[in-house]
Design goal:
Helix content is 44%, strand content 4%. It has a two-stranded antiparallel ribbon. The protein has a domain at 32-95. By secondary structure, it is mostly helical. The protein contains 4 helices and 2 strands. It is flat and about 80 Å long.
């Protein structure tokens, strides 16, 4: 047999084996739980919510009038806002 034929047969066999072991679709999804059931689960599971919020959450994604890409924690650095100017924001920050 020619090498091309071996390759073709090998690939066909590989595809057949892959198809045999392919995952099947899951059954129907369960009905959505009511809000009360979700809250009961949340409380019973003892989950909580921690909001990491600081002065960096106050500037609306821009520094000195220019939009700043990235996450808020880095706005002072990326917008090159001087410390003194950034500190002034604390006076009007009302969490």
């Amino acid at each position: 047999m020619k090498p091309t034929r071996y390759l073709t047969i090998s690939l066909a066999l590989l595809l057949a084996v892959a198809a045999a072991f392919a995952q099947t679709l899951p059954g129907p999804l369960p009905a959505p739980a009511s809000q009360d059931a979700k809250m009961k689960w949340f409380r019973d599971a003892k989950f909580g919510l921690f909001i990491h919020w600081g002065l960096y959450a106050f500037p609306p994604g821009n520094g000195q009038g220019q939009p700043i890409a990235g996450i808020g924690e880095w706005i002072m650095n990326r917008a090159k806002i001087p410390v003194g100017e950034y500190e002034k924001l604390a006076d009007s920050f009302t969490p």
